[in-house]
Description:
The chain is an alpha+beta fold. Helix content is 38%, strand content 22%.
Amino acid sequence: MGYEKEKAEIIFWGKELHRQGLLSGSSGNISWRVQKDHILMTAHGSYLGYLTEDDIVLVDLEGQVVEGKKAPTSETGLHLSIYRNFPEETIVLHAHSPYTVYFFHHFSSLTQVSFEERFCLGKVPVVPQYTPTVVDLAPVIEALKLNHIVVLKNHGVVAMGNDFRKVFSLIELLETQAKLNLTFRFPKPPAEKAIGLLASEKYAPFSHEHLKALINLVNSDREIQEFGEKFQLSGKFCLQDTTNKKTFCLHYQRGKITAFSESETEADFVISAEHNIWQHVFKGKIDPFAAVSQGKLKVIKGNFLEFSRWYPVFERIFALWQKIGIKTS
């Protein structure tokens, strides 16, 4: 059998998942797409903390074993469904993180404290589970469209990506935050400040009416204006809808949006995504900052240091934007 280097990598991350207490016994599984239609996968019943090469089998996209003597994991269906629906992803980790499991048994969302949680995790979807293995795959796939990590309630987590470290770090960070939330019993977050909903009006995303509604909210919001003055921020940032090939740029000067245009010339930031991703952002289903970290939103102009400096302004603008009704297209 081949893929010795890749198997060694899987063995290493299996040990890390076990060492960090993110699984125990024969729970959890790992897969790695090594060719377009061939996937290395841990075998059913294998102990991820003590894997050997024989515990890793090569399967095709139908789940048939191509190389190896053991049966693939009982979660083969979950892994293959992810690869079919996300052809750009190459790694899937499924862990039974204990603090995460227990936290989301009792609560629906984390109290986020650190910037790292916000940037890397965002709002983590929770999908109910009723069977020992994941049988109802569609809700999991829909949730993974919103975030690279999903909680399988009373079961564990599944995370996907193209880099073992990044995928592992999502599971590790979520487990840490779940542990802290359980340990310190954080109080309920304060009620959100009133923003002033725009009645029942709904707008097509990126339409001029949509942008004007945002500008009206921003320019009447005291918090945005205070940030502009405090941090002396002025600039031009553009949002691109790659599906419809539209670009809209907002000109921000110390707390006010003074104009908007469709030209990205001299823009300080250009943020790009497909139309359906923007829709989810506007509806509050995808956290924009986590989406940037996970590559759903791409910052194609502007460096991270500057982006970080603008964080409070962007956070408030996106919060305001989510209060505007969106037409489903």
